[in-house]
Structure formats: C-alpha cells, structure tokens
Design brief:
Largest interface: A-B, 46 and 46 residues
Shape of chain A: globular
Strand content of chain A: 35-45%
CATH superfamily of chain A: 2,3-Dihydroxybiphenyl 1,2-Dioxygenase, domain 1
Keywords (chains A, B): Cobalt, Isomerase, Metal-binding
Number of helices of chain A: 3
CATH class of chain A: Alpha Beta
Helix content of chain A: 10-25%
Largest sheet of chain A: 9 strands, mixed
Structural class of chain A: alpha+beta
EC number (chains A, B): 5.1.99.1
InterPro entries (chains A, B): Glyas_Bleomycin-R_OHBP_Dase, MeMalonyl-CoA_epimerase, MMCE/EMCE_epimerase, VOC_core
CATH architecture of chain A: Roll
Family (chains A, B): Belongs to the methylmalonyl-CoA epimerase family.
Mean pLDDT of chain A: 95
Number of domains of chain A: 1
Number of strands of chain A: 9
CATH topology of chain A: 2,3-Dihydroxybiphenyl 1,2-Dioxygenase, domain 1
Oligomer: homodimer
Order of helices and strands of chain A: EHEEEEHEHEEE
Organism (chains A, B): Aquibium carbonis
Chain lengths: 134, 134
Amino acid sequence: MLGRLNHVAIAVPDIAVASAMYRETLGATVTTPQMLPEHGVTVVFIELGNTKVELLEPLGEASPIAAFLAKNPAGGLHHVCYEVDDIIAARDRLKTSGARILGDGEPKIGAHGKPVLFLHPKDFQGTLVELEQT
Amino acid sequence: MLGRLNHVAIAVPDIAVASAMYRETLGATVTTPQMLPEHGVTVVFIELGNTKVELLEPLGEASPIAAFLAKNPAGGLHHVCYEVDDIIAARDRLKTSGARILGDGEPKIGAHGKPVLFLHPKDFQGTLVELEQT
C-alpha cells in the first residue's frame, strides 16, 4: 500500500531563518516561500533529488502547527507523508485494522492540491503520518 | 552540498509492534530486525522506493536513543539523514559557518558502515540532522 516518501515536514518558527540555514550552511536548493492561508502555513521545499523536506511556518491564528510550536518553540520534525495510489482504499484498510483517521475521516485537498488524510500519532509510535494520493 | 535523503529515523519502544503496524496496517515492506550493539540500537528498514524509514529500538544500557524515549515514551520522529559526497568538506563548511558538530567533530562509522556526523539540533530548528558520506 505505501508508495514513495513524498516529504518530511519540519515546523519552524521563522521560515526565512530556516531557509537561509538550509541554503547557505547546508548548500541545499530551497524554493521561495508560498503562503497557503487555507492551510494555515507558509511553506518552502528543500529539493533533495529523491524526495523533499517541507519547512512549515504558522500562518494566521488557526494554524494547524501552532500547538506543535508552542510545545517545541525551536521547531522540530512534524510529520512524514507517504504516497498511496488510492486514498479511499487506504483509508478503508486502515479503519478495518483499527487505526484512527484524524478529522472526519474524509480526504481533504492538501497543500499540493491532492487528496490527503492524517493518521493519529498514537497509532504510529508517536509519529504524525500523512497519506497523499498520487 | 546536500544530496539525497538517505533515511528518516523513528525511535520506537517496541520494534516488533512497530514493524507489524507498518507491515500489516500500512502494507509496507519491512526488513527483519538487526541488532547493532555497537550503536546501541535494534533497527529495521521500511523500504519506500525512493528512500527508507529506519525504526530504532534501544539496545543495551547506553543506547543513544534512551533519553529521547524517556521524554517521548510512545516514540517519535528522531532524526533525518542527508547524503553528502565528502563528509570532511561538509564538516569544515559547517564549522566555518558556526554550526556545531556533536561529539568530537570526527566522523564515525555509522549503522550502514559509512562515515557519519550528527549536527546539533539547536542549529537546525530543533531537528537532529545526520550527514552520511556515500
């Protein structure tokens, strides 16, 4: 069921500082920031050849990463996103095995314009898992 | 300087339970556990096509992931590992720019038999970064 690793997401308090660190100190290719108000984040991508890292900065008052940054003010690894061919089939398999889907259990259109679901970290060893249909 | 994402590492309290979750619930390919007493971990790899996830369980009394699991008993995202062509050149560039290398600053042979360094999470937005020479 699991396909490629689509991305690893890192929540950061200041995306300009973080982008400069990755670009200048680590010599990485970092895209220009995109504001995604409907997702409550500003995002850049670090292009790594085989996959990418997303840096996420909170945007607006109801940002989904605000609570994480309140607990981890310096930032930190936030979630991993795996690709699946069929997100409804994936969801149904997960539900059958007792794994919990966050929210109402219906896929939403994610930051990349594709259907996504998030799985409960308590079911996956403390790791927030996103599934994205590709 | 940064090459591919070599792996994402997740610390887990029970690698058998975690492996079963990834294999059975998420339908992933999971290798059989390897004990690496010299690294203080038992490890399995989740093969994802473009990269891999490492699940790490503490092994022995001086495991480098023991403190992380004491703080995060359910487990959680532990580090990301990026590939570099020349780890000495990478280290020297990082030191020049003020980033801190963990330990004595000399590369060690990592769990994959290749030279690795770990960078201070405080310099990278709360994220523990491993560099591996490939």
